[in-house]
Amino acid sequence: MADRPTSNASTVRSLVLIAVVVAALAAAFAYTAGWLSPGRLTPAKIVNGLAPPGGAALGFRRNHAKGICFTGTFESNGGAATLSKAPMFAQGSYPVTGRFNLATADPKAPDATVRVRGLSLRIVGPDGSEWRTAMIDAPFFPVATPQAFYALLQASADKNDPDAMKNFVAAHPEFGTFVGWAGSAPWTASYAQDRYNSLNSFIFTNAQGQEQPVRWSFVPAAQPEAVSPDQLKAKGPDFLATDITQRVQSAPQRWTLVITAANPGDPTADPSKAWPEDRRKVEAGTLVVNAIEPEADGPCRDLNFDPTVLPSGMHVSDDPFPAARSAAYSVSFNRRTAEDKDYPRHPAGGATP
Ligand code: HEM
C-alpha cells in the first residue's frame, strides 16, 4: 500500500511521456505535410501546380509525361577519370536505360507544341552504383530558383489576374531571356539531333580527393537540321517517337558526353545562368542508344530519374534544384505508381502515347 502514490506518479509520468512523443510525431508529420506553415513550398504543392487545367493524367509522370524509353550503353573513354572517380568514368562499357521526353504534363500533347525536349539516363557502374540524370535541350533554365519555378506555375495558371504573367516576368528577368531562346532557337525534327544539358551544377571528386564544380551535356552525333514550326505540325502529333524508332532500327544513335568544368566564381547555384563558352571541356565517352523500348509497359515505367542518385565521385553542389527535383519526382513517382490501374498498360486504361 505504501508505494501506491509513487506507482501512480510513475504511471502519470509514463503517460505524459507517451503523449509528448505522440504529439511530437504528429507535429513532425504536420510540418512535413506543410500544415503548420501554409506559406511554405512543399513538393506536393509543386507537383499539384504542374497539373494542367483538366487535372493530372493519372498514372503518368506529372511532368515530361510524354516520352519513349530506350536501352543502350555508355562507352567511357576514361577521359573524365581525372575529374571524377565515378565507376562509369573508368574506361569501359556500362548499361543504360533512358528516356526521350517532352516537357509537358499532357501525355497526348502534339509533339510540335512542346518547345522543350528532355533526355533521362540511368547509367549503371560495375559495382551496381548508378548515375541518374534528367536533362533538357534548353541552354539554361527558365528560372533561378525552385520557388520561382512554383511562382511561374502559379502565374501561368492564374485566370483571375490578367497581369499575373506580366508581373511574374517583371520580377524574374531571367524568364524573359528564356522566352527569347524559346522564340528564336531552331527546332529539329528528331530527338537524335538535340543536345541535352544538365543545367544544374554538381561537384566531381577525383581519386586524389580534388573537387571540381561541373555541368554536363550530351552532344548529338547527328547533324541538327532546322525545321519550321509549320513543318513540324505537318509531321503529325507523334512524329518524334516514330522518327527515333526508325533511326535506332537502322543504326545505333550516339551522343558525346561533354563535361564542362567551372572557373572559380562561375555561378553554380543558378541554372538560369549559362557559363561562358570558353570553359574547359572534357569528352568523357559516348552514349549509344541501341534499342527503343515500349513506353507504356517498358523498363522506364518504374524508374524515377532522380538527379540526386549519384555514384561516388559525384555529389550535389549549392544548386538548390536537384534536392527540390528529387522531392518532387518522388511525389510524382508515388502518385503515378499508386494510379497503376489508370495507366494504359492495362487494356481498360486508354491510349498509349
Ligand atoms: C523545381 C524544378 C523542377 C520540378 C518541380 C520538376 C518536376 C518534375 C516532375 C514532377 C517530373 C516527373 C518525375 C517522375 O514522375 O518520374 C519531372 C521529370 C523530368 N524533369 Fe523536371 N522538374 C524540375 C526541374 C527540372 C530541370 C532543371 C530539368 C533539366 C535540366 C528537368 C528535366 C526533367 C526531365 C528530363 C524529366 C523526365 C524524367 C523522366 O523521363 O522520368 N526538370 N520533372
UniProtKB/TrEMBL annotation:
<keyword id="KW-0560">Oxidoreductase</keyword>
<keyword id="KW-0575">Peroxidase</keyword>
<dbReference type="GO" id="GO:0005737">
    <property type="term" value="C:cytoplasm"/>
</dbReference>
<keyword id="KW-0479">Metal-binding</keyword>
<feature type="domain" description="Catalase core">
    <location>
        <begin position="22"/>
        <end position="352"/>
    </location>
</feature>
<comment type="similarity">
    <text>Belongs to the catalase family.</text>
</comment>
<protein>
    <recommendedName>
        <fullName>Catalase-related peroxidase</fullName>
        <ecNumber>1.11.1.-</ecNumber>
    </recommendedName>
</protein>
<dbReference type="InterPro" id="IPR020835">
    <property type="entry name" value="Catalase_sf"/>
</dbReference>
<keyword id="KW-0408">Iron</keyword>
<comment type="function">
    <text>Has an organic peroxide-dependent peroxidase activity.</text>
</comment>
<dbReference type="GO" id="GO:0042542">
    <property type="term" value="P:response to hydrogen peroxide"/>
</dbReference>
<dbReference type="GO" id="GO:0046872">
    <property type="term" value="F:metal ion binding"/>
</dbReference>
<feature type="binding site" description="axial binding residue">
    <location>
        <position position="329"/>
    </location>
    <ligand>
        <name>heme</name>
    </ligand>
</feature>
<dbReference type="Pfam" id="PF00199">
    <property type="entry name" value="Catalase"/>
</dbReference>
<dbReference type="InterPro" id="IPR024168">
    <property type="entry name" value="Catalase_SrpA-type_pred"/>
</dbReference>
<dbReference type="GO" id="GO:0004096">
    <property type="term" value="F:catalase activity"/>
</dbReference>
<dbReference type="InterPro" id="IPR011614">
    <property type="entry name" value="Catalase_core"/>
</dbReference>
<dbReference type="GO" id="GO:0042744">
    <property type="term" value="P:hydrogen peroxide catabolic process"/>
</dbReference>
<dbReference type="GO" id="GO:0020037">
    <property type="term" value="F:heme binding"/>
</dbReference>
<feature type="active site">
    <location>
        <position position="64"/>
    </location>
</feature>
<comment type="function">
    <text>Decomposes hydrogen peroxide into water and oxygen; serves to protect cells from the toxic effects of hydrogen peroxide.</text>
</comment>
<dbReference type="InterPro" id="IPR018028">
    <property type="entry name" value="Catalase"/>
</dbReference>
<feature type="region of interest" description="Disordered">
    <location>
        <begin position="334"/>
        <end position="353"/>
    </location>
</feature>
<keyword id="KW-0349">Heme</keyword>
<feature type="compositionally biased region" description="Basic and acidic residues">
    <location>
        <begin position="336"/>
        <end position="345"/>
    </location>
</feature>
